[in-house]
């Protein structure tokens, strides 16, 4: 096995891509790790785990759900003794009063269902692109979504997550 790290994530609107890029930068610059970033998409071949001793899996959240293919990637793989870390990009998680809810329902629950033992997990805030703001307002009128800032990504939390993961990936077992 090589020493490469895989960051495999699902996104609908691009916010998770930016979180993944920030994590990649920290792992490369501060921990001198070799990182490959992979977007999981419907119809696209999934990455081979063979080359990667450590894996980070992420997803954006829409209507309480992961990107389906990213959730399947987490749930359907046998990661063996690889170190696995998980994150989500979620509008609720960026709000103090909704953070615990987001963590419990969108992060802990999915990880528990997967049966994967993770070394680190975190829920970051998210960003709703301009084009989808009317949709958010519509959902609010239907009371399907509580109020959250349209860009509440907490970069500090993303960076802290990357550093914790970097430490755990590089420490001797
Ligand atoms: C139509 C729509 C529905 C959303 N539903 C939720 C939700 O149920 N819970 C939540 O935490 N965030 C929700 N969000 C906010 C997203 O989690 C946020 O935009 C996130 O950053 C999306 O990640 P992505 O850009 O990688 O797809 C929603 C956003 C949109 C546009």
TrEMBL record:
Molecular function (Gene Ontology), one example: menaquinone-dependent protoporphyrinogen oxidase activity
InterPro entries xref list: Flavodoxin/NO_synth (IPR008254), Flavodoxin_dom (IPR026816), Flavoprotein-like_sf (IPR029039), Protoporphyrinogen_IX_DH (IPR052200)
Domain Flavodoxin-like intervals: 5-170
Transmembrane segments: none
GO biological process: heme biosynthetic process
Identification of the protein by name: Flavodoxin-like domain-containing protein
């Amino acid at each position: 096995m090589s020493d490469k790290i895989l960051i495999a994530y699902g996104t609908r609107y691009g916010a998770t891509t930016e979180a993944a890029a920030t994590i990649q930068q920290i792992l490369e610059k501060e921990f001198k790790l070799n990182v490959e970033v992979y977007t999981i998409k419907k119809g696209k071949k999934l990455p081979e785990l063979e080359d990667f001793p450590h894996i980070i899996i992420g997803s954006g959240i829409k209507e309480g759900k992961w990107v389906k293919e990213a959730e399947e990637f987490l749930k359907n793989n046998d990661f063996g003794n690889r170190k696995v870390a998980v994150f989500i990009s979620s509008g609720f998680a960026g709000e103090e009063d909704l953070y615990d809810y987001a963590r419990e329902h969108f992060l802990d629950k999915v990880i528990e269902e997967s049966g994967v033992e993770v070394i680190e997990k975190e829920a970051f805030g998210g960003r709703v692109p301009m084009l989808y703001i009317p949709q958010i307002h519509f959902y609010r009128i239907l009371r399907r979504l509580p109020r959250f800032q349209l860009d509440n990504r907490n970069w500090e939390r993303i960076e802290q997550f990357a550093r914790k993961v970097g430490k755990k990936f590089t420490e001797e077992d």
